[in-house]
Design a protein that fits this description.
By secondary structure, the chain is mainly beta. The chain folds into three domains: 2-37, no CATH class; 61-102, no CATH class; 123-201, OB fold (Dihydrolipoamide Acetyltransferase, E2P) (Beta Barrel), CATH 2.40.50.100. It has helices spanning 2-7, 15-23, 25-37, and strands spanning 61-66, 69-78, 85-92, 95-102, 107-108, 117-118, 134-135, 141-146, 153-154, 159-165, 168-173, 178-183, 190-191, 198-201. The strands form four sheets. Strands 1-2-3-4 form a four-stranded antiparallel beta sheet, with no helix packed on it. Helix 2 (15-23) packs across helix 3.
Length: 202
């Protein structure tokens, strides 16, 4: 606490301010400094929804199971949704945490009954995976090995790539049989979900 008091001496007025700074070092400091300088600005209110307009709920409290362990997650706040990388404030089993999230892929709005459309991964020069013969990956990772080249013939289930994600190597298989029409990756490339890594024509 003594270190926190010293660090926040220029903008914290009381113990509550010090605790705010301790829990949220970046955004808490920014808020307290702006309040001290008298430069706080209220955020613009969102426009009211029209009657009958579709509303899409966003989960703010849920259970997450990872490696057999279940954690209770509650989102308590976020940074501005216009930022490419923004903080999320949440509690994990009651313990406050702050994480930074960079959005790579977004679901586009859809009418009731339609399948969600996935936008192209941000910053990607590879085409979006839309066809049965488009080989993709389910999580961000790195290409360890490319096992095919253009004009190769493959059968459904044949290995075509090896990727590494979370320190685990995964063999990516051909979703259909046919001719390899294009290879968009090389060894060492970083890849994201929904990118077309290899194109196979039946």
């Amino acid at each position: 606490m003594d270190n926190l008091r010293n660090d926040s001496a220029g903008f914290a007025d009381n113990e509550e301010d010090i605790l705010t700074y301790a829990m949220f070092p970046e955004i808490g400091r920014e808020f307290l400094e702006a309040r001290k300088a008298g430069s706080l600005q209220p955020e613009a209110l969102e426009a009211a929804r029209l009657a009958g307009e579709q509303q899409t709920g966003r989960p703010t409290e849920f259970n997450v199971t990872l490696h057999g362990e279940t954690y209770h997650i509650k989102v308590t706040g976020t940074g501005h949704d216009t930022e490419a990388t923004r903080p999320f404030y949440l509690t994990v089993d009651g313990v406050p945490e702050e994480i930074l999230i960079e959005t790579l892929v977004e679901l586009e709005p859809r009418a009731p009954g339609e399948r969600p459309a996935v936008s192209s991964p941000k910053g990607s020069r590879r085409p979006k995976a839309t066809q049965p013969g488009h080989v993709t990956t389910s999580m961000p990772g790195t290409i360890i090995e490319v096992l095919v080249k253009p004009d190769d013939q493959v059968k459904a289930g044949d290995p075509v790539l090896v990727t590494e994600a979370m320190k685990m190597e995964t063999e990516i298989q051909a979703p259909i049989g046919g001719r390899v029409a294009a290879v968009h990756v090389g060894k060492g490339d970083s890849v994201n979900p929904d990118e077309t890594l290899i194109e196979i024509e039946a």
